[in-house]
Amino acid sequence: MDTSTIFPFFEKGLPLRSRDLNAVFRRADAEVRHTRTCLHGMGILYGLHVTVETNTITIQAGAGVTSEGHLYCSHTPVELTNSTSPASKIIKREFKAESFGDYLDRPSTTDELNDTVEHLELNSIGTPLTSETLANKWLIVFFEVVAEDLKGCATCDKGKRANVTTKFLLIDDKVWSGNGSLPGLSAIFDCGPNTATNQSNTFTPISTTVVRLSLPDADGDSNLSDLYKNSLNTSFPGIKDELIKTCGLADTIFGLGSMGKDAASMLDVPALHPKTNGQYLYDYLRLIIRAYNEFVTTPFTRHMANLPPKTCFPKHLALGKFDANGGFSDDVRTPFYRPIFSGTTDTDFEYARQLYERLISLLINADFGSLDTEAKKELRITPSRRATFPVGMQAIPFYLKTDALQKNWRPASQFDALILSYDGTKRLQHQPFFDESDFYRIEGHVNQKITLNDKKKNQFEDLRDSLNLPFQVVLVKPLRGQDDVPSLTEFARQNPGLEHQGGVPSGGTFVVVVSGEGNTILGDFCLPYWVQPPTPKPVIADFEIKSQTTKPNEGETFVLFSTSENQNDLEWHVKGSNGDGTRLSADNHQNEYAHFFPLTNLPATHYLVTLTAKKDGRESVEKTTIVVINQKEQTPPKASFAVDAQENGDVSENGDEIKVTFTDAHKPFEIKLIFQNKSENADEYRWQLDGKLKSKAKNTFSQKFVWVAGEADPQTFTIQLTASRDGLIDIAEKTVTASLPSLNPID
User: Fold this and answer.
1) Cα-to-chain-centroid distance, residue 263
2) Helices 259-266 and 346-364: crossing angle, nearest 10°?
């Protein structure tokens, strides 16, 4: 568009020249056409739909404006019946003209064959409109501009005039595909917004997204903060670039200088990783994207696309295209492009401006440094809404400066007078807004310890129950094989959709990730559905007598060793009594516990040894009686056992070794051995396999053994029988080995 404001003034008595009048005409004509395109739009405004019958094309009433501003308007249908013959006509250079004025000072060129286009001109006597004639043709409305000389004779000059004629043309598809086409006949799909520039000036939703954490596919030993860091480092550069580009345009439109662009340029998320393990930064970046997309999809910003360049369809409107069989489609006709401010109101503009100012506030009011303060270390639950609702209907995250954001957090509230969202910085006894919320922000717990109240509930369950909120709490650990709490990767595989959202939806599951040692909270995720907490492994209390030392005429010292399973605390307790009922007791919390059992005046003193294994409010108890005999001479127990029977395989005993021989006929290589107790002078027995208690049977003990075919070094098992009486013990031990046949190929 020519933005020059230079035009002539006419003074009284000044000779009037042709170029002065032509300049006035050019300006007036350009203003009219620019008004049409820039204030009303360009393309087909309405109507101009095409119907085809035998030898007749009907164009319905309608209106349209070319990209150069030429107006076509018909209030009645137009019927086209024939095409000219032959099917070739010279279109002069005027076809590519940019304005009428170019022809008033330049002679017409009738011999420039390179600027021609094959076409069929409709509504003239000639070739019938058969399917063969129409095949692969575009139907266009064309404004033909011809500069006509008005010379009456060879020596006189009456000037010239511009003739603008509206014609309906059939243009072969090769013109649109670039084969011999002219610049003025660009295909409409090449004429979208901003084809004249390399950089888009439109507001569109941000194309870069925050890379989601692929928890089910993550290495079980991956550090949670590393997963966040990789996501942020991958996503951040593209998001920042799009923010800078869009904010530069928005600053200009809303008259904010470079405020938004400067704020976007200063955004530096990766530098803040160590302070939050990445989870709040992850949440922050997703919040920025939602606020950005909410801004660019307002009624005002949806119309912010620039118009196509005026050279796109300067003197034609495409009505549609005939296929190879003569069938017509208007799916590819010239669309209508609205000007930048068309269809919006002052309210739309103000609403978009407030959303943009909120975006700037989000960029400059992150306060991650305050997360180390005591005020931010208090667990809080804030009523909010799900991410599908507008940002302003959600609670303000606690890592933002609440006071700075409350003014424009929810711009819609200034039109509908609704209350602003707030940051739940305190635990209130009465929360009136929970009934209307479907999401609960949960914050202030990262890097804190898991604690239990007197009812064995953690702090999340305690606060949830005090507010009577409907969601489940599940604890997971980041690594595999840690106690009875599932790993994060295993839990994610079993429960699809695990994601960090800064809280939990109503009726969902809040998943807390704790460290392997110390129960420090590393982060949180959520699921939109209810998940029953995994059943913990049972606590099993058990112990064995590791050694015994006799102190003559004083007593016995026993070293007790715990073989308990799945516990994190132990408590030993010894209780004994003499003839006067005196009680002796001792406590110890170690795996190995040595205790002296003194003699009394009684022939035998009984001591009850109790081991209690504990974990997370669960416990298991194992008890054994130790008897100290008060006599100089006594017959000690003698532990002994032998194989009594077997199923499958051949068994032989040689001293302390039991050998099982298998052949191919014995497959699978497993055997059940029955051991006969041959101990003497004992009344209590403990059968153990590889150090684990299996039975306290007095007579026989059976055990199944299994070997794997092809093992180069078959496993060896150890069977141990402990016989005891009145505090004295004896131990018999034998090994069970196997001889396997060579592994033969499978037929």
Assistant:
1) 25
2) 30
Sheet of 78-80: strand order equals 50-53, 56-59, 78-80
Architecture in CATH for domain 641-739: Sandwich (2.60)
pLDDT of residue 85: 45
Cα→Cα distances 244→114, 158, 193, 238, 298, Å: 45, 59, 21, 10, 19
φ and ψ at residue 391, rounded to 5 degrees = -55, -40
- Reading the block at residue 381, the tokens are 């639950």
Give the HSE-up count for residue 492: Cα atoms under 13 Å, Cβ half-sphere. Answer: 23
Determine if residue 28 is left, alpha or beta; phi over 0 gives left, psi from -120 to 50 gives alpha, anything else beta.
alpha
Residues in the chain: 747
Q: How far is CA 412 from the centre of its chain?
A: 28
| SS3 call for 19 | helix
Of 578, 627, 626, 572, nearest to 600 by C-alpha is: 578
pLDDT of residue 144: 77
**How far is C-alpha 11 from the chain's CA centre?**
72
Do 109 and 92 meet the contact criterion of CB atoms below 8 Å apart? yes
> Does 641-739 match 543-629 at the fold level?
yes
In DSSP notation, 236-255 reads HHHHHHHHHHHHHHHHHHHT
pTM, full prediction: 0.53
**CATH annotation of 543-629:** 2.60.40.10
Burial grade of 321 (CB within 10 A; 0-12, 13-18, 19 or more): buried
pLDDT confidence band for 197 (50 / 70 / 90): very low
Please give the full DSSP string across 513-565, using - where no structure is assigned: EE-SSTTBEEEEEEESS--PPPPPPPPB--EEEEEEEEETTTEEEEEEEE--B
Nearest to 391 by CA among 295, 268, 278, 251: 295
- Alpha helix (H) ranges present in 589-658? none
**φ, ψ of residue 231 in degrees (nearest 5):** -65, -45
Alpha helices in 370-447 (DSSP H): 402-405, 413-416
Contacts of 234 (CB under 8 A, 6+ apart): 211
pLDDT at 731 over 90: yes
The mean per-residue pLDDT over the stretch 49-73 comes to: 86
Could you tell me which of 408, 428, 431, 429 has the C-alpha nearest to residue 420? 408
**Extents of the domains making up the chain:** 40-186+318-328, 189-312+334-364, 374-531, 543-629, 641-739
The b-or-e profile of 526-565 (16+ CB within 10 A means b, else e) is bbeeebeeeeeeebebbbbbeeeeeeeeebbebebbbbbe
